[in-house]
Amino acid sequence: QVQLVESGGGLVQPGGSLRLSCAASGSILSPNAMGWYRQAPGKQRELVARITSASYTNYAGSVKGRFTISRDKAKKTVTLQMNSLKPEDTAVYYCTADFPPYIYWGQGTQVTVSS
């Protein structure tokens, strides 16, 4: 059974930075793609960033230029570096990993941007 364990959330002031990490375990294979989604209170879950096995990336428009996604295929980890954080980035962030035909989700980590 694939498990995703996230770490790195917390409280940060506007303009600050946080680094989220996620590690996949339970499979001898590396995921096809890994990504991060987020869900703010009262809003739908949305894609934040995604990275394929070939390291192609895509970002939500609202985070382009501020967030960077990267992965270590050998370690089956994905990292989201978040800079210049804004209050509207406040949400629960979820890690995902694609092991076709399944997509696995982490339990979520809270990110709060507030002064």
Task: Walk me through the topology.
Elements: E1 3-7, E2 10-12, E3 18-25, E4 33-39, E5 46-52, E6 57-59, E7 67-72, E8 77-82, E9 91-99, E10 102-105, E11 109-113
Parallel strand pairs: 2-11
Antiparallel strand pairs: 1-3, 3-8, 4-5, 4-9, 5-6, 7-8, 9-10, 9-11
Short description:
Helix content is 0%, strand content 55%. It has 115 residues and is an all-beta fold.
What does this structure look like?
It is a single chain. The radius of gyration is 13 Å and the shape is globular. The chain has 115 residues and is mainly β. The model has no long low-confidence stretch (mean pLDDT 95). It has strands spanning 3-7, 10-12, 18-25, 33-39, 46-52, 57-59, 67-72, 77-82, 91-99, 102-105, 109-113. Strand 7 (67-72) and strand 8 (77-82) form a beta hairpin. The relative contact order is 0.33. It is built from no helices and 11 strands.
Output the keywords.
115 residues; 7-stranded mixed β-sheet; globular; mainly beta; single chain; 4-stranded antiparallel β-sheet
Spans where pLDDT lies below 50 across 5 or more residues: none
Q: Look at the structure and give the mean pLDDT.
A: 95
- In DSSP terms (H or I, runs of 4 or more residues), the helix count works out at 0
- The portion of residues assigned to helices is under 10%
What class would the helix/strand composition place it in? mainly beta
Which radius of gyration do the C-alpha atoms yield? 13 Å
Largest sheet: 7 strands, mixed
Total beta strands? 11
| Secondary-structure element order, N to C | EEEEEEEEEEE
Distance between the terminal alpha carbons, to the nearest Å? 40 Å
Shape: globular
Strand content: over 45%
